[in-house]
């Protein structure tokens, strides 16, 4: 959502969306530009800012804190995602962050813990691959079919969030969709 506020970003992604929407479905999850958009969105706005509680099985010491057996630990994924020691300029939306480092992969079970929107390891959500594919498909189709712009009364997107069990926007995203080409009902029903 965030990149729609920046007019250069959707135009930069248009060739990628055209490739995906014209039938190259096998490259949907391996397209670096599309994955960079999704990773940056997940980094700045993780669906669950706090991961599921973990319980220690043995006595451990972490950063001079003693964790006894049975201690419940909450991981703040959002704090990791905006940590300046992990990311340069952590509060800005930057596609080049993940284009330069495509090995950072939230879909991998062996990835470093820099990007963890869907848990990690054995506790990773079982639907994460389906969710990632569906988001990529929806995003590619939107970028291919529509050119989104803000309402005339808006100058920027309000990215304020409310936090409960999951994160949602305080204000809905309002865009004016402009079709990139003529769409007829007949062409939709033929496909």
From TrEMBL:
GO terms for molecular function: heme binding; iron ion binding; monooxygenase activity; oxidoreductase activity, acting on paired donors, with incorporation or reduction of molecular oxygen. Signal peptide: none annotated. Pfam families: p450 (PF00067). It comes from the Eukaryota. InterPro entries: Cyt_P450 (IPR001128), Cyt_P450_E_grp-I (IPR002401), Cyt_P450_sf (IPR036396). Belongs to the cytochrome P450 family. This is Cytochrome P450. It comes from Physcomitrium patens.
